[in-house]
Design a protein that fits this description.
single chain; about 350 residues; alpha+beta; BirA Bifunctional Protein, domain 2; seven-stranded mixed sheet; binds 3,4-dihydroxyphenylalanine
Length: about 350
Amino acid sequence: MKEQLEAIKQTAFEAVKNAVSEKEIEDLRVKYLGKKGELTALLKQMGGLSPEERPKMGQLVNEAKSNVENLISKKAEELKKKATELKLKAETIDITMPAKEQKIGKLHPLNTVLDDMIDIFQSMGFDVLDGPEVETDHYNFECLNVPADHPARDMQDTFYLGENLLLRTQTSAAQIRTMETRKPPIRVICPGRVFRADEVDATHSPVFHQIEGLVVDKGITMCDLKGVLEQFAHEIYGKDTNVKFRPSFFPFTEPSVEVDVTCSECGGKGCRVCKGSGWIEILGAGMVHPNVLRSCGIDPDVYSGFAFGIGLDRLTTTRYKISDIRLLFENDKRFLDQF
Ligand code: DAH
């Protein structure tokens, strides 16, 4: 039995010494020291020994067990350290490598321009309001002095959702909603999407954006309209930009104007963008029609006001020299990444 013990010890020492992985060491621990291990088995055989031999042999086997145990633990530690070192070496960070590019989201150009416009109007004391995109005929046309048989309805090809329900063709509907809920003095803008059944081309889209403005108070005149809109145009396009007020027609304003600014592409000389005129039209405006004030329960003999509707898409395409309005809606990342 002594020889047997010696032999097991020797092979165990040898095997532990030659082990190269933590897994191998674990297997050896089981093989020699586990419940069914070779050294454990020896202890079980001791019943066959004489009473004098038994304690001596027991001591020898236990010594061998603890020797093997120590050796295994030492080796296990050594291998673990080695494995960690190898792992660390493999994971070394090369700080001279170029950094990975971080993709960060950014504002759509329409939002950048809208934010600027909101800043400008807020600094002049305007509140920002929201209105529904699905409107009734009543708010989108009727109260804006455009009755059912009015020829001005032809100016705006409308998406109808039902007899009286439609996708708003203009943010002007928000004027009525505002005057129904607020009493003068009123100073609001209402940005939003509008919809028209237009053919799609480089300058037309069935969905586009407007910013409606409304001011109502005692003693508001055309001078206030001119002052506010000139100030706005100068802040957006720069102090050197010329601003021109042209007589026009809208059913809900009287008198009505359209506002042009110097073409930002050619500086007024005339080019493809301004179709040779040197001017770009950016908004429609006018003094709120007495009928409109009346339809909202505001007495036109006491109060007056002006309103305007600015095309956000046109402002954005001219600011960034974007040649096709469709680019604003296609969400092509190659385009959007340029802003
Ligand atoms: N709603 C008009 C349009 O879509 C723009 C407009 C013109 C709005 C004059 C106004 C205004 O508030 O006073 O063409």
